[in-house]
Amino acid sequence: MFTYKKHFLSSFLRKLYIAAPLLLLGTAATAQQTGGAPAPSIWDNALALTMLIISLVLLLVIALLANVVLGTAKLHFDKQKKSDSATKIVAVLLLFLAPSLLHAQDAATDAAAAAPSSIGGLTPLTFWVLAGVIAVELLVILVMGLFVKRFLAKEKIAIAAEAGIAAEAKPSGFKVWWDKLNSFKPMEKEADIDLGHNYDGIRELDNRLPPWWLYGFYVTIIIGAIYLWRYHISETAPLSKQEFEIAMKKADEEKAAYLAKSANNVDENTVTILKEPAALDAGKATFVQMCAACHGKAGEGGVGPNLTDDYWIHGGSIKDVFKTIKYGWPEKGMKAWQDDFSPVQIAQIASYIKSLHGTNPPNAKEKQGDLYKEDGAAPAADSTAKKDVVIK
């Protein structure tokens, strides 16, 4: 057996010596670049050297495992080593050589272009090829290890059979772990936990609860005690009803904040009549302060037109009134108020003006403009209505 292994190792080392010039050729190919200074070689990169060393170490492990597998399986290594082993070794070495050749090809292109993205100083292709080689080697080692384990198990059974001893079936790792987790008793020890009660052939055993179930029960008791103290004794956390009330209050606050924010987005296309007393009071206060000089404190009209009748110069809908206040009619003496009032304030003023309809204040100014009905019907202009250059 020693001669056999020695022959294998010497043959393997000879193949490595023959393949070494291929690796040196890869280094030379890396150094070549079209027209200019040589590109950085893969051998100058610490990450590349580390990955190559790992690949070589794994390659040696594969070679040793291959020797063990072949020896354990009693294969005719002398007939297959010249073809199979040489082919595998050369194939792996060509994988080592490929990144260097690809790196040399990329170097000629990169000379005239900006530096590409890299991984640890390596081109992505080079890095992933090396990583792929290492992954394949690890997979090969895993598979060969499983083969060794299987061959050894068969050999152990064969030896036991020759000796006339029944081979003991070893339970799987999962079964051992599961039995230990549940504290299962082996079949041969069931007599120790038999309570002597037999019900139609069903024996009663004194089995304990699984530890994980028992410990889980203890944990629920501890959690329950903590819950009782926190929610019902110290009252440091809200109950479900209190949580609901807190959530609803928060939702109301968020809704009010949203409505207050979205109210400022109102314009002449989206405005609607405000009927809330607070909004109308705010509109009245602004109207009396800023608009009464032209339209009167009760909207009866003065320099400006009467705002309480059915006649409007520029439309009597809430959108028309909003638009008139916002943009004004400078050529007719009505200034634009959009720089003085917010959209909400303009909507409040317009809603207050609409609330003055039909109040018939004393000293009301004569009709001006066109008759307007709230249903949208706009009859022809009243011939008795006096046209005025002042708008409302």
TrEMBL record:
Occurrences of domain Cytochrome c (ranges): 278-357
PROSITE patterns referenced in this protein's UniProt entry, alphabetically: CYTC
Biased composition (Basic and acidic residues): 364-376
Keywords on record: Heme, Iron, Membrane, Metal-binding, Signal, Transmembrane, Transmembrane helix
Database matches in SUPFAM superfamilies: Cytochrome c (SSF46626)
Gene Ontology MF: a single term: electron transfer activity
Pfam families: Cytochrome_CBB3, FixP_N
InterPro entries: CcoP_N, CcoP_N_sf, Cyt_c-like_dom, Cyt_c-like_dom_sf, Cytochrome_c_Oxidase_Subunit
Signal peptide: 1-31
Keyword Heme: yes
Residue stretches spanning the membrane: 47-73, 85-105, 125-148, 212-229
Annotated spans, Disordered: 357-392
Name this protein carries in UniProt: Cytochrome c oxidase cbb3-type subunit 3
